[in-house]
Design goal:
Elements (H helix, E strand, L loop, with lengths): L6 H7 L4 H11 L1 H8 L16 E6 L15 H4 L17 E4 L6 E4 L4 E4 L3 H7 L3 E7 L6 H10 L9 H9 L9 E5 L25 E4 L16 H20 L4 H24 L6 H7 L6 H18 L4 E5 L21 H25 L6 E6 L3 E2 L2 E3 L6 E2 L3 E6 L7 E3 L1 E2 L6 E3 L4 H11 L9 E3 L2 E3 L15
């Protein structure tokens, strides 16, 4: 039998346990907690000068049509109703129709003259010169679940960490009372196709996984309210706490056990931090109007609440925040998981979805800017792919991964610019193509992280968010 004692066991079992009490006090101190929360990745991280401290990811699940939002194509009007003059790639449903011009009008906005469609009037009027529009985004996959995983993790299958988990792993936590990676939901929003694995820590330590906060729920995080009125529960928790303490002593070198304990500690502190976070009673009437918090349109009000909470999370030092779109009235073949997925009646469906997010997103950018927070907050707006320039059936569009649009704002990005080009039909990228790897390499760079050095050893291989690819898009940076 092995009678060797760990240092923690020695402190606990000698001098009637007073040594362990002292250790517990030291470990509870802010400096010790900071050391335990620091990134455990191998090499010198933060070796770049960071321009951003955190990321807000506005994910438009389902695939927004670039042809109807940020990439105007006049030739589609000229060829309306005609067959495609080039080879048509295989689509998701292969119910391919004729050339389908955008039902939305485009105009130039801001001093930069960026073209934005009538779907986004608030964004166009308030924020055009803050946007760096990428019109040459590409994806490797054409199906929602795979595309969602690819966009979030750099791999088209589950089992790899989400970008938010990587960011928190590289930077550590700036607030012990809240998780470093938060996914916001409201109004019945759900995870995109692929499920909550899109927000996973995978093989990274458990403390880097996302915490889902439901902004408008009576209990924003499940079981966040302490059940002080239940004495039996308190006795059970005390019993479990004793078991955990014994187990941690015996497994003091196990990083996963330590991560689980840290999660429990964060959860305890969240009991007071989360209710204060979601309480908007201190926000001014002007701020509520700016975002549309009290809008009679329930989905818009719910998304507005997410955007306002994103700003409040930024103020509290959370590293990575992702927002969730809501389905409305059954639109979109993807339903609740992919509400931008209009395979039919695109004009109606996209107009409804744009009304939901336009004012709240524009308000978020304006609010961050006026508070001096946009300079070091990187905002990313994207869906998993674009839509075809020809119709599916009569008035929808199928998936198009060969060229689509996303945008960035803040965090050291040059606003009022356009990067890349699709062909005159908006079908394929013809200049300056961008991959998911390039996007995340650029985001990490702005956070002060080298995407090639932010790695984690799993199964005998060093993995990273950008796999073995990725080039920083320096021309987007100020």
């Amino acid at each position: 039998m092995n009678h060797l004692l760990s240092r923690r066991a020695m402190l606990r079992q000698t001098s009637t346990g007073f040594g362990m009490l002292a250790l517990a006090g030291l470990m509870a101190a802010p400096s010790a907690r900071a050391a335990r929360m620091a990134p455990s990745s191998p090499p010198g991280l933060a070796h770049l000068r960071p321009r951003a401290k955190r990321v807000i990811f506005l994910y438009m699940s389902g695939g927004v049509s670039h042809l109807d939002s940020f990439d105007p194509k006049p030739r589609l009007k000229q060829l309306a109703g005609q067959p495609m003059p080039v080879k048509v790639e295989r689509t998701m449903f292969n119910n391919n129709g004729r050339i389908f011009p955008s039902p939305f009008e485009f105009q130039q906005h801001g001093q930069s003259g960026i073209a934005i469609s009538s779907m986004f009037p608030y964004l166009a009027r308030w924020c055009a010169d803050d946007l760096a529009v990428i019109r040459s985004m590409t994806s490797k996959v054409n199906e929602h679940a795979q595309a969602n995983y690819f966009f979030h993790t750099g791999f088209p299958v589950m089992g790899h960490p989400s970008a938010g988990a990587w960011a928190h792993y590289g930077l550590g936590s700036a607030n012990d009372n809240l998780p470093g990676f938060v996914v916001l939901q409201a109004g019945g929003a759900v995870a995109p196709h692929g499920g909550i694995g899109l927000f996973s820590n995978a093989y990274l330590p458990a403390r880097h996984q996302a915490s889902i906060i439901t902004a408008d729920a009576p209990e924003p995080v499940a079981n966040i309210q302490p059940r002080e009125s239940d004495p039996s529960q308190r006795r059970r928790l005390a019993f479990v706490q004793d078991l955990d303490a014994d187990f941690l002593v015996k497994t003091a070198t196990d990083a996963q056990v330590e991560a689980a304990v840290q999660n429990a500690e964060t959860a305890y502190r969240m009991q007071s931090a989360v209710p204060e976070l979601v309480d908007l009673s201190g926000e001014s009437p002007a701020t509520r109007r700016l975002y549309g918090i009290d809008d009679p349109h329930p989905q818009k009000a719910a998304y507005a609440r997410q955007c306002l909470l994103a700003r409040r999370l930024v103020e509290r030092g959370v590293r990575f925040i992702e927002l969730s779109c809501l389905t409305e009235g059954g639109i979109g073949a993807g339903g609740a998981a992919n509400p931008w997925d209009q395979h039919g009646d695109l004009e109606k469906g996209h107009a409804i979805m744009a009304r939901q997010v336009d004012q709240p997103i524009a308000a978020l950018l304006v609010d961050l800017k006026q508070r001096g927070l946009l300079d070091d907050t990187l905002v990313v707006w994207a869906g998993e792919f674009g839509r075809t320039p020809f119709s599916q059936g009569s008035n929808g569009r199928d998936h198009n991964p060969y060229g689509f649009s996303i945008w960035l704002a803040g965090g050291g990005v040059r606003g009022g610019m356009v990067h890349g080009t699709t062909d005159d039909l908006g079908y394929h990228v013809v200049d300056a193509p961008v991959t998911v790897y390039d996007l995340w390499a650029t985001v990490l760079h702005q956070l002060g992280l080298d995407h090639e050095k932010l790695t984690f050893l799993s199964g005998g291989r060093n993995f990273r968010l950008t796999d073995v690819h990725g080039t920083v898009l320096f021309n987007l940076l100020g």
